[in-house]
Amino acid sequence: MNDTIQTPASEGPVSARPRPSKPNNSSKYAFFEVVQGYLNVAADLVGLPDDIRTMLSQPKQEIIVHFPVRLADGSIHLFKGYRIQHNNILGPYKGGLRYHQGVSLDDLKALASMMTWKCALMGLPLGGAKGGIKFDPRAFSTRELQKITRRFIHALGSNIGPGYDIPAPDMGTNAQTMAWAMDTYMNTVGYLSHESVKGVVTGKPVASGGTHGRGKATGQGVVHCIVRWAEDNKFDLEGSTNIIQGFGNVGSHTAILLSKLGASTIAVGDHTGYRHNPEGFNGHKLCEYVKEHGSIDGYPGGEAITREEFFATEADILVPAALENQIGAEEAASMKVKLVVEGANGPCNPGGEEVLAQRSIDVIPDVLANSGGVTVSYYEWVQNKRCETWTLEEVDRRLQKKMYAAYGDVVDMARRKGCSLRIASYAVALERLAAVYAERQVWP
Ligand code: NAD
Fold this sequence. Notes:
It contains 15 helices and 12 strands. By secondary structure, it is an alpha/beta fold.
């Protein structure tokens, strides 16, 4: 472990250790810097050897591809796609593909590293990665999205694979995207290998080799965390209220699953705006509406409110399930909730988190709260490997056990070290990664 790690000059010295800092004043949120700040605090806390910290401070590989796609109007558009492979000491790289106009190398580096912590925290034999394409998928037809996805997967080529790097859905992608991705990959490896490469992506539709329970998995994991928090805090979820930002995969399943526990969602928001309904939204109906119309805009229930009014809505729980950097000091100061559960990755910025801590509003951090998705992705991958199909009950049972165990490990670490649940999540993950580095050391 005595090797000195060098990084490209353009990255600056890796020994520079940023602390969690408020985002700088430039318009772009320094997401990767923020996540590295958390890494450094947690690394100090658990006494992580400097060499391991240095290795974990940058991704192992940053792949950027440009690929042309002929659009419906006959024009050719050149797309920019990324795959960031952060770490694979625990197993194959694993992480979602994001389609969003805001996708950037820096954000994907942050998200890829968070996948490493998530998999380590959940005890999965997987590493961390993230990828995506910088474009607005809402501006393209289904046929065009299929072509874009296929060309992207083709451009990534052997940089992904069922034993090497396994993408999954994230923002702007879904089970259909994964079916196209799998089919494209299968067709590039030759027909003799078709069946053996099903696990090249997870989050597929069940009929195409996906697993029962993956669709709701992230929301289910969020709800398991809420249930554990409620038990620890002697809080009755029956009759409680919640507000949810983002009504896509994570937000909608969270709302529906919480309603089964007697908790009502009284405000929701997405990229088109926010709505309030003191009687509580019907999660199923709102979900159907979003599927049909693409957003909550114009939904007949409740009334439109502003973003500011949304964050200031009096409720018990807030679940941000959209983008990073949504809760800053201002939003945090206006909130009237007891608990924030990060369904999204990085929704609280350090300034927001500081205010939440001062106001004694609990935060269940992303690395723990939304790890149900990758956990059930792992179950899908295992089923593909073994040519098995598990029942929904089996998947649910395993997920609950894993989520409760991880929740317990994080709370335990936070109590022992006197730190936040976020830093505790990183600390648990780092201890596990450090143990493997200590055994395997650095090759050669
Ligand atoms: P999605 O594309 O299904 O839904 C995203 C939602 O966010 C949509 O309702 C969209 O309208 C809303 N949104 C987008 N921009 C917004 C804005 N500026 N303001 C308010 N709302 C906005 O995505 P998803 O899969 O639900 O992912 C949401 C978050 O959860 C992301 O941070 C993602 O990384 C994280 N996450 C997803 C999974 C998963 O399994 N899908 C797993 C772990 C973490």
